[in-house]
What does this fold into?
Amino acid sequence: MSLMRSTAMIAALATPALTLPAHAADPELTVFDWAGFEEPVIFQPYIDQHGDSPTFAFYGDDDEAFQKIASGFQADVVHPCSQMVSKYRDAGLIEPWDTARIDSFDDLDPVLMDSETIRDDEGVWFIPTDWGATAIAYNTEEVPEEDVASLDVFTNPDYAGRTSLPDSADDVWALAYLATGVTDWTDVSDEQFQAAADWLREAHQNVAAYWSDPSEQAQLMASGQVDVAWSWNDGVVYLQEDDYPVGFQREAEEGSSSFICGFVNMKDGLGSEDKVYDFINAWLAPESAKGLLDTIGYGHSNLKGMELIQDEPAVQDGLGPIDAPLLAQVPNDPQQRERQLAEFEKIKAGF
It folds into this structure.
């Protein structure tokens, strides 16, 4: 994705018609997804089978997507990250997957499904498809390596007005917990929560802008407005494609974060249920792993797909094991998530 295209995408995402189909194609399947995942190479077998892509509508944040679905926006499948699944379940918006209709189900990495939120006696509620890292992206020509050896770069006064954080409560709290010594967000005390909130308030003072989409983060850095960002893999991929001097520090002293995303099957989808499964099967095909890696920089949930790309530099640099703490963004207490979300909104507002 070139930054010229990224700028156009930002403009499209900024319009009030966000929940309208941004890419209208096959009318029998509507996918509510993160911007950038409409690239055909990620689900090419679906196009080969049906002659067109699904109709896509886009969002930039998991909580925003849930609110729109809960308010009545119609889609057949949605692409949340794993910590959101309980909200969809509790609201009665999704139904279990028929795993017998998923060709590669037995090849999915079991580590990505190791949660009762995802899989229980009632069925499989979430099909993991992609996973990635959240870490420090930085301008290697402007930022010395020693400055990104610690997450304190986000509170360093030398970078006042030169940092960007995601407008995503999950990712900023993962950062704040790591920075204050917490690597398991499934068991957070009130004292740990307050320490992380205090750190976030300090980091907020350095923020030039909160990015709502990886392409926006890439544009902020490419323009020279920002030199350091808390970034997903895709923001780094976009910058690399435009020859921007970007580093991705996953081994800061305090660590970095990881996440798992996938698809939930909407209970009252208006489209074709057969095409829902055709789309998921296309996504999970082993050959789709290379397209996902090249386009977004993420890992694939199909172990056979990962075998095909395991020697790619992007896997080694952006997804491989690290010698540092790791906070996995696994499903956590929904009440804790709501508390974090509310506190983050206060922090962004300057309170």
Remarks:
- The longest strand covers residues 127-139.
- The longest helix spans residues 190-204.
- Residues 1-21 have pLDDT under 50 and may be disordered.
- The domain at 26-131+259-319 is CATH 3.40.190.10 (D-Maltodextrin-Binding Protein; domain 2).
